[in-house]
Amino acid sequence: MSSIAHLFVAGGFVMYPLVIFLLFALMIGIERIVLYRKFTKDLRRFNKVLEKNQSWVMLPSILERDTLELGSLFARAIRSAKNYNSLENRLQDIVSYADERLKRGLSWLSMIVTMAPLLGLLGTVLGMIRAFAVVGGDIGAPTIITGGVSEALVATATGLTVAIIALGFHSYCAAKVNDSITTLEHECGNILDAYNEEHDI
């Protein structure tokens, strides 16, 4: 612990925002992962309902009973739709809502990926400036300079570490969003097909 505290101090003041960035990245990443698992589970339930259900009239009630959030959204869309075009517009609204909800927080991860290395570089530059500032005839100056530079590099290493973690979360989340929205759009197509069959369009 003492060595970690020493490295934290050696990195300079930029270590404080970097630690905050790391905590934010972990919080956002974990929260998103939990949400995506819940959403995927809901999509599976939704798909099973569509595969088993044969009655368009009973579909909204069954969706509300056997699925989670998606069921109530689609049930309202089905009940309020007056025709095919109206239903298609309602389903597109649901897809847009889901897309916005699933992407929430990803812009913060993207910002952390960009800012963390820059803060780390800033800390290193400031550390090197302080190290070279000791040159003034002191016989121990070369040792102080090299020691100061090596400690200053802690900021860059920390910034890169935080950025890598945030990038990992961001890449995973972006892939899950794309997969989920693609699956959701496919389910919307199944609902439109069921509407066509029911109304012989």
Account of the 3D structure:
This protein has one domain. The N and C termini lie far apart (70 Å). By secondary structure, the chain is mainly alpha-helical. Helix 2 packs parallel to helix 7. It has helices at 2-10, 15-52, 59-66, 69-80, 84-103, 106-132, 141-199.
Short structural summary:
This protein has 201 residues and is mostly helical. It has helices at residues 2-10, 15-52, 59-66, 69-80, 84-103, 106-132, 141-199. It is found in: Cell membrane; Membrane.
Features of this protein?
transport, 7 helices, 0% strand, 201 residues, membrane, MotA_ExbB_proton_chnl, transmembrane, transmembrane helix
SSE topology string: HHHHHHH
- Report the major sheet: none
Give the overall pLDDT as a whole number.
84
Structural class: mainly alpha
Count of distinct structural domains = 1
Proportion of residues in helical segments: over 70%
Per DSSP, what share of the residues sits in E-state strands of 2 or more residues? under 5%
**Could you give the distance between the termini?**
70 Å
Strand count: 0
Q: How would you sum up the global shape?
A: rod-shaped
Q: Spans with pLDDT under 50 lasting ≥5 residues?
A: none
**Continuous helix count:** 7
The radius of gyration over CA amounts to 27 Å
